[in-house]
Structures are given as structure tokens and as C-alpha cells.
Design brief:
The protein has 442 residues and is of the alpha/beta class. The chain has one domain: Alpha-Beta Barrel (TIM Barrel). Helix 3 packs parallel to helix 5, helix 7 runs parallel beside helix 9 and helix 12 packs parallel to helix 13. It starts with 11 loop residues before the first helix and ends in an 8-residue tail after the last strand.
Length: 442
């Protein structure tokens, strides 16, 4: 068993007090648990007859190009056409272009694009949350992609619960996580205690943004581990890819669950054992990543754990309490992720590109992450929506010059709309490449 990272350890005396006091606590204990990133293997939910294995990433033959060429396929990339035929199109275009990995979104807002034991079918598939579409998108995509030697990494939104400020439909089987959080942590004035709250006391939400769970909720963490273990056990996925593994903003940790766990009002005096309230918040997120790495990754040989992270490290660190350099082991040498993908692309594309994410900024951002990688992989994100393919090719070449382990393009629909698949195949992807191996798993 690996030791816990020193930067996310709570002083041992506090740990002992919490553990010894658990037996004496009443129902309110669920509201007052301090997050302890303790490494424990979860109890299996079922005994599968077959454990699917990941696609092997053996040591490449001499002369073979080694480079992850990943593409994000989000739930919006096949909007309005959630059919097996669309999967055929996606895999065909991706394979013909020369990609070797797909980050396929299977969890957007605590729902499922696969047969889940813990979360309801996505409403996008049929129009009704929880309704079985009669086919399995993830299972079908894995079958098609593996036949073309393409890895499939299950892409999960982590703390995202539901888009908008209204609750999701009730009565699904399994019940939506929103209602499980309500049952576990209770409500205050009609607001779920286990969701992130702003410092003004309102739940974090907007018509186009997510309600998000509190990273301080151990209950939610345990649910996430159940979801991931279910995926790893029943599907031949090659990796778990984390997104929205951060707070919703700089003032979004004022929920009752966070207050009880921290032991101080939000953004006030540092919680016991921490230099600042922000350090305590980063520990909550770090602990979730640590659990994925120590509880889920060992369940399947060769399984990747990766994450999409805020492009500017400083902004992510200070405004969203996301610290991927800690996950990489940059500070103390203790790594608990295999790769990170900074999302270095604009939300709106112009011609020529005059966004803040120019080629120079892109290069410098990747160089910073590459310098902090601690032997792990940096797979930088590249936007697909540029009005000239030269913008994409330039960034691929910069990634290669910096020695990254590859790159990932966001996303499928942008490449399709711009008809860039042939440009990739005839240009930077003319030579076949294999996914780099992971040599550090025990």
C-alpha cells in the first residue's frame, strides 16, 4: 500500500480523534465528517464472471512512433443522433484520421451512456431520464473502436450533478444522485446541503451551468468509486478520464457539508492543520483523485487515470482549487495520476486566431506542465474549431518539440464540421503511432 501524499495528510492526531469518535456520533455525523483521503479498497458490488481487460500497451517495437493521439467525444458531439450508426461514423472518421484513443463521455450530469448499476440512463438517449434506449453506446463504441486498435477512455464529469437550477426528474431506477445527496445530507430552506453553495448562501447554478456536489462529501466520493468500479468491472475500457474535477468557482465552498467538515466558516480562518482555507479545498479535490488512483486503477491491469484540467495552472489553483501538479507528484514525488490534459483552447474561434490562447501562450502553457510532469504524461488539449488547419498542425508540432506524450483534440464535431480528418491523415498523422505504455503501475 502506498503512503498518502504528505500534502493531503491531516495530522495523525486529528485522524485518530475522528476515527475513535465515529462510533459515538449520531445521524449528524454525515454532515460533519472531515475528508480523510484514506486508502482502502472498496467492497466489491458484485462478483463478475469475466473481468474485461484493457487494450494492451506493450513496449513498442523499435522504429514505431509512440504518441497518444486522443480525441474528446462529448455527449454534445452526437447531439440529436444518438444511434449506433452515429457511433459507426465517429469511429470510422477517427480511425481513418489516425487517432489511437477516444475520450468518450459516459457521464455528463450524474447520468449514464451505458448500462449502469448506480446512475440512470441519460435523457439525451430517449428524451426520458432513466429510460433504457435498447442498446449500449459505450459497449458498442468499445467493440467498434477496439476492432480498429483505438483505445477507449471513459470520460466522466465528476462533481457535476445537473444542468440548471431545477432538480432532475424523480422516480428513476437507479435514483438520480441528486436525490441520494438530499437523503444523505438533508436540506436547509429547500437547498441541498451536499451541493456547492456560494458565499451568499445560494446554491451554485445557472440555466446553462451545473449544480455541483460538495467535494467535502465522502458520501459522493464513495458513490463515484462505485460508478467507476462498475465501469471497470463490466466494460473493457482502457482508462478513466476525469473532467470537472474542481470547484465551480472561487466562492463556492459555503455549503453546510463543507462547513461541518472544515470546522470553520467558509473563507475564514484556516481549518485545523491547513495553511489556508484554499489549501483545505484543494485537499478535498486531491483526495477524490487519490481515491480513483488507489481504489480503481489497481482493479484493471494497464488502466489509465487521466484528467482534463484548467489550462492556466495558476487560475485553476487559485480560482477553482484544482492542483494537478500535486497529482503529478511535482511537489513531493508522490504521483497519483497517469496523465493530465490542460484544456488550452478558446470557447469561441476567430480567423485569424486572436483569442488569449495564441500559439505562443499555448506553447508556454504546455512547457510549464511538461516541466512539472515528474515522469508522468502531459497530453495537452488542442481546439478543433480553428478556421485553418495550420493552427492545429502548429500545436501538434509544438507538442512534439516539447516532448509531450501526445495530445488530445477537442472535439469530434469541430473536426467534422471543418472537414479536418483528411488533413490529419495526410499531414501530422501520416505515420501510424501507438499509445505510450504505462510502466509505473505496480
Amino acid at each position: 500500500m502506498k503512503r498518502l501524499p504528505v500534502h493531503i495528510l491531516i495530522p495523525i492526531t486529528v485522524v485518530l480523534v475522528v476515527i475513535l469518535g465515529l462510533a459515538a456520533l449520531a445521524t449528524a455525523v454525515d454532515e460533519s465528517r472531515t475528508f480523510l483521503p484514506v486508502v482502502m479498497q472498496p467492497e466489491p458490488t458484485a462478483t463478475p464472471t469475466v473481468t474485461p481487460t484493457a487494450t494492451p500497451t506493450a513496449t513498442p517495437q523499435p522504429g514505431t512512433m509512440v504518441e497518444m493521439r486522443a480525441i474528446w467525444v462529448s455527449r454534445f458531439d452526437w447531439l440529436g443522433d444518438y444511434t449506433p450508426q452515429k457511433i459507426d461514423e465517429i469511429v470510422g472518421n477517427v480511425a481513418d484520421a489516425g487517432f489511437n484513443a477516444i475520450f468518450f463521455q459516459v457521464r455528463g450530469e450524474a447520468d449514464a451512456f451505458y448500462e449502469s448499476a448506480y446512475e440512470p440512463w441519460s435523457a439525451r438517449l430517449t428524451g426520458t431520464l432513466g429510460q433504457n434506449p435498447g442498446w449500449d453506446p459505450l459497449g458498442y463504441l468499445i467493440q467498434q473502436a477496439h476492432a480498429r486498435n483505438i483505445q477507449v477512455h471513459a470520460y466522466l464529469n465528476i462533481y457535476a450533478i445537473w444542468v440548471g437550477c431545477n432538480p432532475p426528474p424523480a422516480g428513476t431506477n437507479p435514483p438520480h444522485l441528486y436525490y441520494r445527496i438530499a437523503q444523505e445530507h438533508g436540506t436547509t430552506d429547500g437547498k441541498l446541503n451536499g451541493l456547492q453553495w456560494y458565499s451568499n448562501g445560494n446554491v451554485v447554478c445557472s440555466p446553462s451551468d451545473y449544480q455541483r456536489s460538495s467535494p467535502a462529501s465522502v458520501f459522493v466520493d464513495n458513490h463515484l468509486m462505485d460508478v467507476a468500479a462498475d465501469l471497470v468491472t463490466h466494460y473493457a475500457i482502457d482508462g478513466i478520464h476525469l473532467d470537472h474535477i474542481r470547484y465551480g468557482g472561487s466562492t463556492t465552498s459555503c455549503d453546510p457539508v463543507s462547513a461541518a467538515a472544515a470546522g470553520v466558516p467558509c473563507f475564514s480562518a484556516p481549518p485545523n492543520g491547513y495553511a489556508s482555507y484554499g489549501d483545505w479545498q484543494r485537499t478535498q479535490v486531491n483526495g477524490t483523485v487519490w481515491k480513483f488512483y488507489t481504489q480503481i486503477v489497481p482493479q484493471k491491469e494497464g488502466l489509465w487515470l487521466s484528467a482534463a484540467v484548467w489550462p492556466s495552472y495558476n487560475t485553476g489553483y487559485n480560482n477553482y482549487y484544482q492542483d494537478p501538479k500535486s497529482w503529478l507528484g511535482f511537489y513531493d514525488g508522490v504521483s497519483y495520476i497517469d496523465s493530465v490534459s490542460p484544456m488550452i483552447y478558446p470557447g469561441v474561434y476567430n480567423c485569424p486566431d486572436n483569442s488569449s490562447w495564441t500559439q505562443t501562450v499555448w506553447y508556454n502553457t504546455v512547457a510549464e506542465y511538461q516541466g512539472a510532469r515528474n515522469g508522468r504524461y502531459i497530453i495537452p488539449g488542442i481546439g478543433a474549431g480553428y478556421c485553418t488547419f495550420n493552427e492545429i498542425e502548429a500545436r501538434i508540432n509544438m507538442a512534439r518539440s516539447l516532448g509531450t506524450a501526445g495530445h488530445a483534440i477537442f472535439s469530434y464535431s469541430g473536426l467534422k464540421n471543418n472537414q479536418y480528418f483528411d488533413d490529419l491523415r495526410n499531414g501530422p498523422y501520416a505515420e501510424t503511432a501507438v499509445v505510450p505504455p504505462i510502466n509505473w503501475h505496480p
